[in-house]
Design goal:
The structure holds three protein chains of three kinds. By secondary structure, chain A is α+β, with helices and mostly antiparallel strands. Chain A has eight domains: 85 residues, Ubiquitin-like (UB roll); 33 residues, no CATH class; 220 residues, FAD/NAD(P)-binding domain, CATH 3.50.50; 126 residues, FAD/NAD(P)-binding domain, CATH 3.50.50.60; 60 residues, BFD-like [2Fe-2S]-binding domain (Arc Repressor Mutant, subunit A), CATH 1.10.10.1100; 145 residues, Probable tRNA modification gtpase trme, domain 1 (Gyrase A, domain 2); 89 residues, Alpha-Beta Plaits, CATH 3.30.70; 100 residues, Elongation Factor Tu (Ef-tu), domain 3 (Beta Barrel). Chain A has 24 helices and 51 strands. In chain A, strands 8, 9, 12, 13, 14, 15 and 28 form a seven-stranded mixed beta sheet that branches. Chain A has a seven-stranded mixed beta sheet with strand order 41-42-43-44-40-34-45, with helices on both faces. In chain A, helix 4 packs parallel to helix 10 and helix 20 crosses helix 21. Chain B contains two helices and six strands; from the N terminus they run βββαβββα. A four-stranded antiparallel beta sheet of chain B has the order 3-4-5-6, with no helix packed on it. The longest helix of chain B has 9 residues. The two termini of chain B are 30 Å apart. By secondary structure, chain C is of the alpha+beta class. Chain C folds into two domains: 105 residues, Gyrase A, domain 2 (2-Layer Sandwich); 76 residues, Heterotetrameric sarcosine oxidase (Alpha-Beta Plaits). Chain C contains four helices and twelve strands; from the N terminus they run E-E-E-H-E-E-E-H-E-E-H-E-E-E-H-E. In chain C, the strands form two sheets. Chain C has a seven-stranded mixed beta sheet with strand order 1-12-2-8-11-10-9, covered by helices on one side. Chain C has a five-stranded antiparallel beta sheet with strand order 4-5-6-3-7, covered by helices on one side. Chain C is globular, with a radius of gyration of 17 Å. Classes of the chains: A alpha+beta, B alpha+beta, C alpha+beta.
Chain lengths: 997, 100, 195
């Protein structure tokens, strides 16, 4: 047993030893210890170096509010920085490292920054590195030079660089009552709500439920508080209307009574079970919330208040009573309120030597005096600590008389030898969630603290959160809050008997002892009282600006320990009362949240993807797959040794010479059904569909309301009231929403159902001079000749025993057919087509060849229908019906949309016979040194086997008028410059003789 | 933020798609009044306070909802189906506890 | 007759998976009904559509949003205003419904290939589903037979409670394999069996 560890007492299991390392040195602790308590028990008080000045730092607190003892946890190859040692449960094999020190925690070269502290005060970065260059050591460029060194020297832990292979999960939960915090108030609230039948979730930050009951040293109705808490927790366990969430930080309170929480499921375990996540992110939707988040003790601001050995009084009480660790050998205490006296008495009872209590007040209550006497401590009233002595550990303090009215120190300095100074500057209720929920905290003069505002959402509070620090009050209030939250009638319960008697928690309004030396307000960011005053002198009067300028209360602190002292100092500098200065609005998260838990399954392998019915066939053919939105499509079916270009050229050439087949299942397909289906299509397409006979398809174009082109595709009339609309793959969802919007909002009188049937049908497009012969060989039940199946005709038949629907339409420009069948039969039909095509040299082709064929034909896709082009720009004005209004018809003829110099679709031929690039500019005159004068850009490009040239489609100003003229491609990023000819976009077979056959 | 779909009940906003200002009036299909079209297509009210909005429950039943939302507080004071009343009656949410 | 190919084929591995040593939390399966059909009624025609569904399938759909009914090989539920999904293990449901529902009442849309039916059953079914969907799966909030339309990322899902701890989930076929893999991943923690 270590010298600091008591033989008995606390919630640790002394029979179970846990081995861990800190900075590579092996230590032991017990089950139930935090890293901080185990290190403290081993006599370690130096745990970190500060952010800016690299000052040695120890432990200030015993919980999530710890600003100093931040460490990095190493796990496998992953490292997680900036975790408070006070919130880490130790386990066998735990490896922790201190931060922001080089070469070691004990010998840190960065501590030299303390000598330069005069020039690196608040606003140092802004003053030195922002703005114009006005000298060699100023401005933004200087920052770029210095950044590397500063980033190394300042800051907290270093993030890992290897991928985190931990599992993270997200969970949705619903409940009647969410209770946040499980101290006496929270436990009573959860119990009362559960007893009345409500669905309850009880979330506790710590591994152990009970909050202060675990370390207050009180008895409740005769039982030890910790046992009282255990009994309630046990009564809640196993109830099917209660979910207990230990190790869970509720960190965000959002609209609609939706709260976010992080459960650390397996951080405390040596190994995780199969499938068990490391963290679980909870989204909790609660009908009602009880906030029982307690209060945090505030430090006092005085010179040297950051020296290792200076600790909050309540933290010492917790280390002693919960972990059986005495924080020092000769303890002194510095306070502005009575609660610290209770801590002193409690420590004494556990065997500590509490030598001296220094109180800023002169008028000390009898109750406090009695507690000081029972602790055996000398009481020095009306005095303050004006300095601390020692190096990396505390060995003494200086005490001086404090004039209460003026706040000045007078008289002789008295030195007191001590290795542990406990401080208490009053209590701040943890209001973060309430503030996030939308309301402004209210200042309470008596408690010298902000109290919860009137709820703006459905929550209530209980216990120290509402400023009721006495356990008896917390129990009564918690019970009432739980009952009310569950919708029950309030039934007050008797105040329980608490020993020792509760004490007045109201502090004297003293936040800072002004004396020579650095007095820290925000320990984590090395913000001193002087920094706050400096900010004021430089004109910062709003607390929100103060926070940003000095970094006060940022990062993991989030104002936990620094908020109120910082505001008080600011208020004094402004000469205003604290409530007029106000407080910053708290924002989520309350504690650090792992990015992994927010990403969870939205990352890596679990990201959703869409596969066509023939996906596995493509893979079996070694197709190179390409992700198009969420879809995966074959890019090429490459042969061994082929480049991508060789593969697509081979595939495209086969389509022109024999036949090719491509998977078109990804095309958006929408069933448009109902008596008004044709009417709807007439309104949304620019051309007429009501005149389309059953059994025929028509190419259609849609515009947006503003007259710009939206999407194109063919729509098939399968029955009088039954159409199958196809859309581009990329726009399927948008077109569906477009139709739904008009049907619901604009034309509710139309009787039309639109249903996404993209996934219902497998689609194969088969095209080329031999395509019809292949179909003839395998289709049963229908002829596919010109008479039975003319261009844009539809027939129904069977392939290999499967019903199919065949439409004769062409994207490739060849005689081509789209064969549709039920998706479950897709591979079966596809394989039958491949088999039937073998004697005809049928080739499967991918997206690259598909693109090549369409570029040769000059067909448009999403690259040209880019949200800026009109039907005229794309030479589709022949599709704009004059017989009827349609979406976009009223707006499409506006001046700017019909101007002659608009970007219009053209074809481009590379005259230097080199590949072109998508996105490259077209210019009139080439100037590689100073590229300028763009007249348009390339939207799609390829090598065209049908022409034996590198070609492209482009949008070029006044494009049509430039046919046959010379221009240049200018692509400075890829260093591609060269002459091109502007031609018609219809490169190949402009009369369409091949597809009409 | 939660929105209460008249059909599906309260759902997270991520299930919905904002479909624009609910005050817009589409001119008659054959109207040549460019000013009116311009107002419909481009003009949006942007009040600090209650705002009439159209939302689609695109991640649920896909119907459109007329929502009155306070742009300062996110408080939704009304959420009704865009489609008419007869529709709504027939698809009213069953009261909790009512027999199936 | 040619057998339909399931989109789950290469990833469907019957047997026990995940942490099943301490008990199987859920059983996952693909139910592969031959008929999945959408019925949409015009406003005011819902009652006639419901009557037609009853005539064809014998299933009595309750009135009200998201109401549904399960009867052995058949199931039906409302998933949107005036819209219903009707499921039958046997083929031919779409044709039968199309005969019973006149154009004046509504439309019938065949989705037997386009939707994949995945069943999750067992004591941890609600827990596993809560990882995906932000809806309340507790029995009082989600009664037997009832259905919900919701989304997990881009994956649309219609979910019907077909038992005390059993849910049938209808997803788009193209997403089915992705969703199945994610479902298995999420179920590892509680141990699962693929039937």
């Amino acid at each position: 047993m270590s010298p600091r560890r008591n033989e008995t007492g606390g919630q640790i299991d002394r029979l179970k030893t846990v081995r861990f390392t800190f900075d590579g040195v092996p230590f032991t602790g017990h089950v139930g210890d935090t890293l901080a308590s185990a290190l403290l028990a081993s006599g370690i008080t130096l745990m970190g170096r500060s952010f800016k000045y690299h000052r040695p730092r120890g432990i200030l607190s015993a919980g999530m509010d710890e600003p100093n003892a931040l460490v990095t946890i190493l796990r496998g190859t992953a490292r997680e920085p900036n975790i408070p040692a006070t919130a880490i449960e130790i386990y066998d094999g735990l490896r922790a490292e201190s931060q922001n020190r080089f070469p070691s925690l004990n010998w840190d070269i960065g501590a030299i920054n303390q000598l330069a502290s005069k020039v690196i005060g608040a606003g140092f970065y802004y003053k030195t590195f922002m703005g114009p260059v006005v000298g060699p050591l100023k401005g933004t460029r200087f920052w770029m030079f210095c950044e590397h060194f500063i980033r190394r020297a300042a800051g907290l832990g270093r993030a890992g660089t290897v991928a985190d292979d931990s599992r993270y999960e997200r969970m949705n939960a619903f409940c009647d009552v969410l209770v946040v915090g499980s101290g006496p108030a929270g436990l009573m609230a959860a119990k009362a709500a559960a007893d009345s039948g409500a669905r309850v979730i009880l979330a506790e930050l710590d591994p152990r439920f009970g909050g202060s009951a675990n370390w207050s040293g009180e008895t409740i109705d005769g039982a030890r508080a910790a046992d009282w808490a255990s009994e309630i927790v046990n009564s809640l366990k196993g109830r099917n209307n209660v979910r207990l969430l230990p190790r869970t930080a509720v960190w965000g309170y959002y609209d609609g009574n939706t709260l976010a929480a992080l459960e650390r499921v397996s951080d405390h375990k040596e190994t995780t079970a199969r499938g068990e996540p490391r963290h679980r992110h909870w989204t909790i939707r609660a009908k009602s919330v009880v906030l029982a988040t307690g209060a945090l003790e505030r430090p006092l601001v005085f010179p040297g208040n950051d020296r290792p050995g200076v600790m909050l009084a309540s933290a010492a009480q917790r280390y002693t009573n919960q972990f059986g660790v005495l924080p020092g050998e000769k303890i002194t205490l510095f306070t502005n309120n009575d609660t610290a006296y209770q801590a002193a008495a409690s420590l004494k009872k556990a065997g500590a030597n509490v030598a001296t209590i220094i109180d800023v007040r002169t008028d000390i209550s009898d109750q406090a005096r009695a507690l000081a006497a029972s602790a055996g401590a000398e009481l020095i009233a009306g005095h303050a600590v004006s300095a601390t002595d020692g190096g990396k550990t505390l060995n003494g303090i200086r005490v001086q008389r404090l004039d209460g009215a003026s706040g000045t120190l007078t008289g002789e300095q008295r030195s007191i030898q001590t290795d542990c100074l406990l401080v208490s500057g009053g209590w701040s209720p943890v209001l973060h969630l309430a503030s996030q929920a939308g309301a402004k905290p209210e200042w309470d003069e008596k408690l010298q603290a902000f109290l919860p505002p009137q709820p703006t959402q459905d929550w209530s509070g209980a216990g120290a959160f509402t400023g009721h620090l006495a356990t008896a009050d917390a129990i009564v209030e918690g019970h009432a809050a739980g009952l009310a939250a569950a919708g029950g009638r309030a039934r007050a319960i008797e105040h329980p008997a608490i020993e020792p008697a509760s004490i007045n928690a109201e502090p004297a309004p003293v936040f800072e002892i002004k004396a020579e030396g650095k007095s820290f307000v925000d320990f984590q960011h090395d913000v001193t009282a002087d920094d706050v005053r400096l900010a004021h002198r430089e004109g910062f009067i709003s607390v929100e600006h103060l926070k940003r300028y000095t970094t006060l209360g940022m990062a993991t602190d989030q104002g936990k320990s620094s908020n109120v002292p910082g505001l008080a100092i600011m208020a004094e500098a402004l000469g205003k009362p604290i409530p007029e200065v106000g407080t910053t609005r708290f924002r989520p998260p309350y504690t650090a949240v792992s990015i992994g838990s927010l990403a969870a399954e939205r990352y890596g392998d679990l990201k959703p993807e869409r596969l066509t019915p023939m996906h596995d066939w493509h893979l079996a053919q070694d197709a190179t797959m390409y992700s198009a939105g969420l879809w995966f499509r074959p890019m090429i079916y490459g042969h061994a040794g082929e480049t991508v270009e060789q593969a697509y050229v081979r595939e495209a050439r086969a389509v022109r010479e024999t036949a090719g087949i491509v998977d078109v299942s990804t095309l958006g397909k929408i069933a448009v059904q109902g008596p008004d289906a044709a009417e709807l299509l007439d309104r949304v397409y620019t051309n007429l569909f009501s005149t389309l006979p059953v059994g025929k398809a028509r190419y259609g174009l849609m515009l947006r309301e503003d007259g710009v082109a939206f999407d194109d595709g063919t729509t098939w009339r399968l029955g009088q009231d039954d159409f199958l609309m196809t859309t581009t793959t990329a726009n399927a969802g948008k077109v569906m929403q477009h139709l739904e919007y008009f049907l619901d909002v604009i034309w509710p009188e139309l009787k039309v159902t639109v249903t996404s049937v993209t996934d219902e049908w497998a689609g194969a497009a088969i095209g080329g001079p031999k395509a019809r012969e292949i179909l003839t060989a395998c289709v049963k039940g229908t002829a596919v000749d010109n008479a039975a199946l003319p261009f844009m005709g539809i027939v129904h038949g069977e392939i290999a025993g499967v019903p199919v629907m065949i439409c004769r339409l062409s994207f490739s420009g060849e005689m081509a057919f789209e064969v549709y069948c039920g998706a479950g039969y897709g591979t079966h039909v596809w394989e039958a087509l491949i088999e039937a095509g073998k004697p005809f040299d049928l080739v499967a082709y991918g997206l690259e060849a598909l693109g090549t064929l369409r570029i040769e034909k000059g067909h448009v896709t999403g690259a040209e229908i880019d949200g800026r082009t009109t039907a005229r720009d794309l030479h589709l004005d022949w599709m704009l019906s004059k017989k009827k209004p349609f979406i976009g018809s009223a707006m499409m003829d506006r001046e700017g949309l019909i101007a002659a110099d608009r970007l219009q679709l053209v074809g481009i031929v590379a005259l230097d016979n080199r590949p072109l690039n998508g996105g490259a500019h077209i210019v009139d005159e080439l100037d590689p040194e100073n590229p300028h004068g763009s007249i348009g850009h390339i939207t799609a490009c390829c090598y065209a086997p049908a022409l034996g040239k590198y070609i492209a489609l482009a949008l070029v100003q006044g494009g049509k008028g430039r046919h046959g003229t010379r221009a240049y491609v200018s692509d400075p990023l890829r260093k591609r410059f060269g002459p091109v000819e502007i031609v018609s976009n219809h490169f190949f077979d402009p009369e369409g003789s091949r597809m009409h056959g | 933020m939660l929105l209460t779909c008249p059909y599906c009940g309260p759902r997270d906003v991520s299930e919905f798609t904002y479909q624009g200002d609910g005050n817009r009036q589409r001119p008659a299909a054959n109207s040549q009044d460019l000013q009116a079209w311009n107002e419909y297509v481009y003009d949006r009210q942007n009040p600090a306070g209650d705002h009439n909005e159209i939302w689609q429950h695109s991640g649920g039943c896909r119907s459109h909802i007329r929502v009155v939302r306070n742009t300062l507080s996110h408080v939704v004071s009304s959420a009704i189906p865009v489609r008419g009343d007869t529709h709504r009656r027939a698809t009213e949410r069953r009261k909790p506890g009512a027999k199936a | 007759m040619v057998e339909r190919l399931s989109p789950l084929e290469p990833v469907y591995r019957p047997g026990s998976h995940g942490r099943f040593e301490d008990g199987v939390g859920v059983i996952l399966s693909e139910t592969r009904p031959d008929s999945i059909v959408q019925v949409a009624a015009w406003p005011g025609e819902e009652a006639r559509a419901i009557a037609a569904i009853r005539k064809v399938t014998g299933l009595a759909l309750p009135d009200g949003a998201g109401g549904g009914v399960v009867d052995g090989e058949k199931a039906a539920f409302g998933f949107a205003p005036g819209k219903f999904t009707v499921v039958d293990e046997a083929e031919g449901l779409a044709a039968a419904l199309a005969k019973a529902i006149a154009p004046a009442v509504g439309t019938v849309t065949e989705l037997s290939h386009g939707r994949t039916a995945i069943r999750i059953e067992g004591p941890e079914a609600e827990w596993v589903l809560a990882k995906f969907f932000a809806i309340d799966f507790a029995l009082p909030a989600f009664p037997l037979g009832a259905a919900r339309s919701t989304t997990h990322h881009d994956v649309f899902a219609q979910i019907q409670r077909t038992g005390g701890d059993r849910f049938d989930i209808y997803v788009f076929r193209s997403f089915a394999r992705s969703f199945w893999k994610a479902l298995g991943h999420a179920a590892e923690e509680v141990g699962y069996e693929v039937a």
